[in-house]
Here is the input.
Amino acid sequence: MRFISGLLQVVFFLAVVWASLLAAGLISNDLPWSDPPGMGTRLLTYLSTNTAETTPDSAFPELRPRTYAAPAALMFDVARRAAEALHWKLNTVESEERKIEAVATTRVIKFKDDVTIWVEADGEERSTLFARSASRVGKWDLGANTRHIMDLFETVDIIAPVTAVVDEEDTAEESQASPEAMPTESDTPSTTEAPSQE
Here is the structure.
């Protein structure tokens, strides 16, 4: 009986530790729980997938690619500086293809996730920023990969705050955006404040 009682205590302890790590991961990633498609779908997704990617028809608003009133080369430079400001390790920076491959570290367990960023031109004065983040281990990520993509977009907005996101259904906003208003590399402070990577 003592053996069974001790075994049950160990199992209970491990279950509590496991649940605590899950809760800490979900909380620290600061995810938009109240946004569509709802808390239940979000929780199920974060506990069953280990990849997040921007797609035009994503059910998750934060995982839709963002179109800017700015040339692709300029947006690629802003995206590169955003990745650097987030202290991601840049493994590959392909200027001609406008593609970046980087490694991000999760906030709680410090796992390494592979992030791919790319910019596609939409004419001469518009471009769209895409991203994909995937965990190297595990079958679920607690929303960490979604958090990486959110951090990228938030940091891009910090680096180039005057760049308006183009609303496909509202061309009036596009007409007010000026690509020349975006800061160049020499205009942007070297100490950009990016979201915390604790």
